[in-house]
Write a structure and sequence with these properties.
The chain has 189 residues and is an alpha+beta fold. Helix content is 23%, strand content 37%. It is built from three helices and twelve strands. Strands 8-7-10-5-12 form a five-stranded antiparallel sheet, with no helix packed on it. The longest helix is centred in the middle third of the chain and has 21 residues, at 102-122.
Length: 189
């Protein structure tokens, strides 16, 4: 399906066009792709997954360097937890889907923690700086296979996964689903 709509640009208020197109995306299924560009340079794009699968949790124990190659498929409703690092990545309203590997997830975390650590250092927060530096040190060791950790990926809409023979999959209970963020408005009709 292809559709074109118009709306006012949030920056300059000119009328701009949005193109809506459904596509089949590997690992994610059917999705609606939305894109719009205004004359002023404002751009908006979004991908909305149109399907839903069984709510699931994937757990991968990363015990050797080869485990860093495991494929991670995170939908915009997926939560990633790495307890040994003290990291929870929960979806928000602007959450994006991506396909990566465990090392790529560590790179994303490293980027955010590096920024937060620099900010804490500039603000004079010694405790936060030390916490950030400890996480960064553990990430560096993990990349060398010298820090074992667990990656937990939970998705109440079932559109996320860890693809690895070592990953364990389980179905989320109703209570577990209710405790998770989805990053989007969900209507139960």
């Amino acid at each position: 399906m292809n559709l074109t709509t118009e709306a006012n640009c949030p920056v300059c208020s000119r009328m701009m066009q949005f193109n809506w197109e459904t596509r089949e995306i590997a690992y994610f299924g059917e999705a609606m792709m939305i894109a719009g560009v205004c004359e002023c340079g404002f751009r908006h794009s979004d991908t909305i997954l149109l399907g839903q699968k069984e709510p699931a949790r994937y757990v991968l124990q990363v015990t050797e360097i080869d485990d860093l190659d495991a494929r991670v498929i995170r939908s915009s409703s997926g939560t990633i937890r790495i307890p040994e690092l003290g990291v929870d990545i929960e979806p928000g309203h602007a959450s994006e889907s991506y396909v990566s590997n465990i090392e790529g997830v560590l790179e994303r975390i490293e980027s955010i923690v590096s920024f937060a650590t620099r900010s804490a250092r500039e603000a004079g927060s010694e405790e936060s700086t030390q916490k950030g530096e400890a996480i960064l040190e553990n990430i560096a060791m993990a990349r060398c296979g010298k820090f074992e950790f667990t990656v937990i990926l939970e998705d109440p809409l079932g559109n996320s996964a860890i693809v690895s023979d070592k990953a364990q999959r389980s179905v989320l209970s109703c209570e577990e689903i209710a405790s998770l963020q989805t990053g989007m408005l969900i209507l139960d009709v």
